[in-house]
Amino acid sequence: MTGVFGRYLDVDLGSGRVGEREVPERLYALHLGGRGIGARLLLELVPPGTDAFAPENALVWATGPLQGTGVAGAGRHAVLAVSPKTGAIADSYVGGYLGHELGRSGYDGIIVRGQAARPVYLLLAGGKAELRDATDLWGKTTGEVDEVLRRRHPGVRVAAIGPAGERLVVQACIVHDRSRAAGRPGLGAVMGAKRLKAVAVAGQADKPLARPKEFARARALFAQELMDEGMKRFGEFGTARGLTWLSEMGILPTKNFQDGVFDGASEIGGERLAQTILVDRETCAGCPVRCKRVVQTEFSGRKVHPEYGGPEYETLAALGSLCLVSDLNAIALANELCNAYGLDTISVGVAIAALMEASEKGLLPERVAWGDGRAVVEWTEKIARREGLGDELASGLEAWARKMGIEFAMTVKGVEVPMHEPRGKVALGLSYALSPRGATHLEGLHDTMLEQENPSPELGIRRRMDRFALADKARVLVVYENLRSYVNSLVLCAFVTRDTGPRYNHGRIRELVGHATGLDLTPKDMLRIGERNFALLRLFAARAGMGPERDGLPLRFHEPLPRGASAGRPIGEAGFAREMALYRRIRGWTKDGISRAKLRALDLEDLGA
Question: Which of 202, 22, 220, 210 is nearest to 99 (CA)?
Fold first, then answer.
């Protein structure tokens, strides 16, 4: 198979050895890249039950066949490891420029194992890789590290942890290009446990392609078709534009998911952001959309710098509506602090909202008031620095909630619920409840996708479906999860893939994949690859002891929302349980893993023992 180099850089921090690991061509044909190859490597290298902070855990940076080729939306890569939140494999996807450089490095990814005796960084440039001393970088923010390494090694792109990752804060992420986060599984803390401060990459190798001329034509056509009026509008306002829409639909996460309508939504939405603090728009390698926000402002006497980008939808909701904060300036400062310290904004927002509710209920000695922008900024720093109660939260929101005996910490399998309300998107709720990696909004289906005629005929989804209806959602969810898993193996941006409606473009994407790899995939092949790679996560989770008893939603989602267009519609527990059981049967999931029949169907029999 072309479109890949056939090898990963293999780094042992304990010994300081830097070598290569060949990946058999058969595995590329089965898994393509990204999630698939990354998870397969972790299944081979990391024993189930391994503590996330142990030297035996491995971090994997993974690309797919389109990275390094200039395809719009392919300026991304995946980072995978055993997560400190779940104890199972979790993958995170991040944009910017490092993925493009890694796709031109001569390697398809990087495996990092062991633990360094002192802080180090990995330099991969000029076709050579080496570990360098990072003692002088330890304690610095992600922006400071980015500046130092790009000055020291011209042409590199940098992924770094901040002080939060060094302190093993489980909300810590890996920040790329100062403003892109490989976020929610806590992989920044894994990197901190390894004493790996940063990875710097500059590529110079041309990726081998099966049909280069045809690929170049298809790449140009893909970008041309992508930039219709709707996408131009999306680039103008970014993901933040959806905030006011979701409030109007009654499903904007508000007051720790107690409400779906935020009265201050218009004050923090994409239009207001563009009118006030937006100063520029950034993009990722090869992408013409330019959807990334860049802001400049100040809050409480502190400046917010454009170098750290600006808040996207998830951040505006997590640090805004979820905490009843309607001050864009406060949210922008908290967003910058998260990027600088290396913190996931969703995880931090959900933790602070739980604090606010606990304070309101008299469960804390501290006063943490709803709507207090200063409190959001203050607690972001307390979590990053492990100060006071922030230290407990930094060890995990779910563990803190168990200690406190509270049921309003909004997590699934230890992972904070993202900013999409499942009471108005019930199939998304199924995905939250059942995913081996914990609650995630990027696994495939948002029910609003189905509120149109003939959503995805190529996938066999031809019937319009109501976003509140549970019946038959398990079957449909599996299809879209398999599709997204395939896309995550290509490591394409979710915003350049159109899964439903007249703009559906997976035929064009398969054409690109064929010209790159020589594999001319059918729709059935595409879904089968996705299902196979999703199964890898389930296999590891089951071996690590994550059984069906861990599946489910926070109790709050089985209660009705109080107002708005989605009011009075809780997720019925009995119907939800039936759909979860149906989902497991479709996937061939058993109590202890995956049935042998399903493993045979997915060509994974060798992993069945």
Answer: 202
Q: Give me the half-sphere count of Cα atoms (radius 13 Å) on the Cβ side of residue 454.
A: 5
CB 343 within 8 A of CB 169: yes
Asked whether the beta carbons of 257 and 557 are under 8 A apart, the reply is: yes
Q: Per-residue pLDDT tens for 370-429?
A: 999 999 999 999 999 999 999 999 999 999 999 999 999 999 999 999 999 999 999 999
DSSP 229-251: HHHHHHHHH-GGGHHHHHHHTT-
Q: Which residues contact 411 (CB under 8 A, 6 or more apart)?
A: 350, 397, 398, 401, 417, 438, 439, 554
State the CB neighbour count (10 A cutoff) for residue 469: 13
Pick the CATH number of 239-399 from 3.30.750.24, 1.10.569.10, 1.10.3720.10, 2.160.20.80: 1.10.569.10
Q: By CB neighbour count within 10 A (0-12 exposed, 13-18 middle, 19+ buried), where does 151 fall?
A: exposed
Of 308, 110, 309, the residue nearest 203 (C-alpha): 110
Give the tokens for residue 403.
Answer: 């200690």
**Tokens 């059935």, residue?**
524
Which residue matches tokens 């709720």?
429
- Alpha-carbon distance of 104 to 201, in angstroms, equals 9
Q: Are 571 and 426 spatial neighbours (Cβ–Cβ below 8 Å)?
A: yes
What's the CATH superfamily of 7-202? Aldehyde ferredoxin oxidoreductase, N-terminal domain (3.60.9.10)
Topology given in CATH for the domain delimited by 422-607: 1.10.599
pLDDT digits (tens, 9 = 90+) for 252-277: 999 999 999 999 999 999 999 999 99
Query: 363-383 b/e with 16+ CB inside 10 Å = b?
Result: eeeeebeebbbebbbbbbbbb
| Of 89, 90, 88, 66, nearest in space to 77 by CA | 66
State how far the Cα of 121 lies from the Cα of 123, in Å rounded to an integer.
7
Provide the pLDDT for residue 576. 97
User: CB–CB of 62/33 below 8 Å?
Assistant: yes
